[in-house]
Design a protein that fits this description.
This protein has about 290 residues and is mainly α. The protein has 12 helices and 5 strands. The strands form 2 sheets. The chain has a 3-stranded antiparallel β-sheet. A hairpin with a 5-residue loop joins strand 4 and strand 5. Helix 2 crosses helix 4. The N and C termini lie far apart (about 70 Å). About 20% of the residues are buried.
Length: about 290
């Protein structure tokens, strides 16, 4: 007897088998156990849906204040990063993806599939997200990988221009301000960047929970820098541009030539040689490398 046939024939009242497995691989007790596991999985999905609704309700009751995730985390013994992620996802499932939440409550999909629907549809408008839901859930695949692949297929189908643009727009940008600050940006598909942000955010919130005095924004920055550059940054070389008047630089050049001629032992300068003229004229630039 096939596995599907077992599940169809398995009794819903345990301990009272209603079928004969004499010609199959499963005993009545084994089939009943499988049927019970199936029911437990549906119940777990329904409980996840209840939790989502309660998280979203609490967030709305608190008016979406910044410390909601900390309050939830303390009550449920969750890390601040995990609590923040759960609250944001719950709000999106209730407001943007009600069909997905309904399917979760009925046990049609599990929590992993609901999370995949949320993460992959994040760049879409509410209307397009609803179209993706309808296309995916009408015949939702049983396995997670196939489900996620179908969600991505419908996202590309509903918003082909946006999908192509997101692939083309992958880049890393850097801009420097006059006040000594700079901006480093990473742009790309949300399903790739969002997990990276969650990892940084969770690490930062964990440090905050352990008593770190830095702000969350500062912690996220420091965590991101540690991930990108490593905690030991001694291998990073810095290039410093030094601009001096040409009269000063000519004096340095004269002293260097005189010293070399008298000792016949030229000494390596800390600056690159020869110097280059600055566009403004009357000034020269040297490069000094600090390591």
């Amino acid at each position: 007897m096939s596995w599907d046939a077992v599940l169809v024939a398995a009794p819903r009242v345990f301990g009272e088998p209603e079928f004969d497995f004499s010609d199959g691989l499963f005993s009545p007790d084994e089939a009943s156990t499988v049927a019970e596991l199936e029911i437990v999985e549906r119940d777990k999905a329904a409980l996840c849906a209840d939790e989502v609704r309660l998280l979203a309700r609490y967030n709305q009751l608190r008016g979406g204040v910044e410390n909601v995730s900390e309050e939830i985390g303390q009550a449920l013994k969750w890390s601040p990063g995990h609590a923040s992620h759960q609250v944001v996802m719950a709000e999106a499932l209730v407001t943007r993806l009600p069909q997905t939440l309904s399917a979760l409550g009925r046990g049609v999909i599990d929590w992993a599939k609901a999370r995949a629907m949320y993460e992959v549809t994040r760049p879409l408008s509410d209307e397009d997200a609803a179209r993706v839901e309808a296309g995916v859930l009408v015949d939702a695949p049983d396995y997670y990988t196939r489900f996620q692949r179908k969600v991505r297929y419908w996202v590309n189908k509903v918003d082909p221009d946006g999908a192509e643009q997101r692939r083309k727009d992958r880049c890393v940008t850097f801009t420097q301000d006059d006040d000594g600050e700079a901006f480093l940006g990473i742009r790309g598909p949300v399903e790739q960047l969002y997990p990276a942000y969650v990892r940084i955010d969770q690490h930062a919130r964990r440090l905050k929970q352990q008593g770190d005095a830095r702000s969350l924004d500062n912690l996220r920055f420091d965590v991101a820098m540690d991930h990108l550059c490593g905690e030991n940054q001694s291998h990073i070389k810095t290039i410093v541009w030094v601009t001096v008047p040409h009269t000063t630089l000519l004096g340095v050049m004269t002293s260097r030539v005189s010293y070399s001629a008298s000792t016949h032992s030229p000494r390596k300068s800390c600056a690159s040689w020869p110097p280059t003229r600055n566009r403004r004229g009357g000034e020269f630039s040297m490069i000094r490398r600090a390591g």
